[in-house]
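Hi everyone, sorry if this is the wrong subforum. Our group has a chain we'd like a structural model of before ordering constructs, and none of us has done structure prediction before. Sequence below.
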Amino acid sequence: MAATALSTRAVLLIAALAIPLRADRVSDVRAQITYVASALSAGNPADAMTRFDKSLPSYDTLRGYFDALGAFQVENEIDIVDEQDNDAETKLTVNWTLTLTDLASDSKRERSGEINVRLVQKDGKWKIVDFAPIELFNPQKQR
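Answer:
Right subforum, don't worry. Here is the predicted structure as tokens:
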């Protein structure tokens, strides 16, 4: 009976310790997306790209889009609408709204889209390895 009580306590302790780990993982993953949005709003595209792994198939194109956003004041609104986790990765679906204000003419454009994001841990840090579609971030796109 003492062994059963000890086993039950050990299971409860392990479960209690796992909850904060899960919460930390969720907040760490979400922080990567928030960081990208904040860096773009601050006019720092190079900083935004630090959250992306260079293996991302569209890395160079996305970097070009982010750089071109420098001609605008950028406002981001993000809403994570779905999250799927497993031991190896996290997948997010993000409703992303960009408001671009042309610095020369003060005209505004707003565009929205659903972005699919996949993150994995590399060297102990979360990195974005899939981010699509990226056309939302193309400032030359009319809508």
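For your construct planning: The CA atoms of residues 83 and 92 lie 5 Å apart. Helices lie at 2-41, 45-49, 59-68.
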